[in-house]
Amino acid sequence: MSHRQDQVRLLRSDDIYAIERLLRTSEFVYQRFTLNELPSLLARYPAAGIGPDTGLYGFLLTQIISAPFAWISGFGVSWTESRNHTQILSQLLERLYEILPGQGVRYLHYSGNDADHDWLRSLLLTRGFAPYHQLYAYDKFDYKVPSEGNQHVTIRPVDIIHDMQALLQIEEACFDDFWRYDPPAFTDIKATHPYFVVAELDGEVVGYQFNALDDEYGYLVRIAVHPSVDGQGIGARLMTEAIHFFEQARSSRIMLNTQEENHRAHRLYEWFGFIRLQQKGFVLRKTL
């Protein structure tokens, strides 16, 4: 099928319905966001689509959580164009390669949960992406907790303006630069995630945690505690409150990914009954 009249273009907020339709019907789809996040992704970050003037049969979304680092956050192709998905991916990538450097981006990342069975990983490896990190995936199927954690810690909803400086300090202390969220990313998280709390000890914000929900599944997206208060039961307190949240949401499965070398986090997750999956997660990187 010829697409000589179709164009690759930057997507806008009024493309939301077309993207949602492709997410429901695509044979080749990658989704690193919830539908609640889709409007803010389109409003804030570069996204490319392809199709005729009156339609869309392919899209590629990005998210810049902290320049110069960006992530592929979504890709989809209509089922009628499934046989052309590799060509469509290349066209959309080339368009974003033109746009992202102007947003201060030098590195584009892609992450997945199963290195052995990820169809998009194999395509990206032939398009200049290279292995960068390995991840572990954990699942939990009940709401049992071994400890309620430090009861002297106050858990409260984040105040995105008042708490921002503390959040950024925790990011710098806990994570490599390409994992860190910047103020716009934290603002989007507050607006789109159903659970985002901070942990206070002696009046100081020393940790935070946020979750996402997708139908019956729960995603423990991030839990972080400043290293200066390690060993005081703050991570356990945050984890307990997160599991209580998933129980109230009736999530049948709680999922998370973590860096392979984050041994302290592994111990916390396994203590709380998370089971490490055999499959290996991963991160790919392309330098623009």
Task: Explain this structure.
The protein is α+β, with helices and mostly antiparallel strands and 288 residues long. It has two domains: 7-105, Aminopeptidase; 142-251, Aminopeptidase (3-Layer(aba) Sandwich). The protein is 29% helix and 34% strand. It is built from eight helices and 13 strands. Strands 1, 2, 3, 4, 5, 6, 7, 8, 9, 10, 11, 12 and 13 form a 13-stranded mixed sheet that branches. Strand 9 (195-201) and strand 10 (204-214) form a beta hairpin. The longest helix has 15 residues, at 85-99. 38% of the residues are buried. The mean pLDDT is 93.
Q: What order do the helices and strands come in, and which of them pair?
A:
Blueprint: E1 7-10, H1 16-25, E2 28-31, H2 38-44, E3 47-51, E4 58-66, E5 69-77, H3 85-99, E6 107-112, H4 119-125, E7 130-140, E8 154-157, H5 164-174, H6 183-192, E9 195-201, E10 204-214, E11 217-225, H7 234-248, E12 253-259, H8 263-271, E13 275-287
Parallel strand pairs: 5-6, 11-12
Antiparallel strand pairs: 1-3, 2-5, 3-4, 4-5, 6-13, 7-12, 7-13, 8-9, 9-10, 10-11
Question: Could you name the key traits of this structure?
Answer:
alpha+beta, 13 strands, 288 residues, 13-stranded mixed beta sheet, Aminopeptidase
Write a brief structural summary.
The chain is an alpha+beta fold. The protein contains eight helices and 13 strands. The model has no long low-confidence stretch (mean pLDDT 93).
